[in-house]
Structure formats: structure tokens, C-alpha cells
Amino acid sequence: MRGAVRKFGNSTGIIIPKPLLSAFGANAGDHVSLTMEAGRIVIERLDADPRAGWAEDAARLAEAGDDGLVWPDFANEGDQDLTW
User: What GO molecular function annotation could you give as one example from this UniProt entry (predicted)?
Assistant: First the structure.
């Protein structure tokens, strides 16, 4: 399947035919991720809410006791001289 880069106002774009969108489960208005891999543009459909499931995962980590800081708190040189 071939396409063309077209002018859309001050921008340019490529119209993706419906069969290609359907092949990876995307619809008009969906959010996608665009990356470059080996000289090719890769388009991936994103979930509607990129933070979906975060609350459940945080609760699961807390319940398992695995929600501690990965990096300990650390100070900068001269912090003890600061007046707040």
C-alpha cells in the first residue's frame, strides 16, 4: 500500500488508510506513539489513559511492602547552612 506526504495547513501529514488502522486496532482520534527504528517510522496505538491501572498497582505494591524509596534521600553540600 502506498501513500503520500501531504500539506495540511502549516503542517504535513500522511493519511493512513482504514485497513491499516484496523490492523493494529486504532481509530480516528486515538493517541499513538511515533518512534524511529532502523530508519523506519513506527506507529503504536496508546491506551486511552496512559495512567490506567496505576492506583491498583500502587495499592498492590504497598500491600506487598514493596513501595519503599529506591534511592535514599540525599543532601547537597551546603544544605545544612540553608535557612528556611
Answer: DNA binding
By the 10 Å C-beta count (0-12 exposed, 13-18 middle, 19+ buried), 16 is classed as middle
Asked whether 30 and 47 are in contact (CB, 8 A), the reply is no
Phi, psi angles (nearest 5°) of residue 30: -70, 155
Q: Is the pTM of this model over 0.90?
A: no
**Percent of the chain topping pLDDT 90:** 38
The H helix count followed by the E strand count for the chain is 2, 4
In the chain, the domains with their CATH numbers are 5-66 (2.10.260.10)
Between CA 28 and CA 17 the distance in angstroms is 11
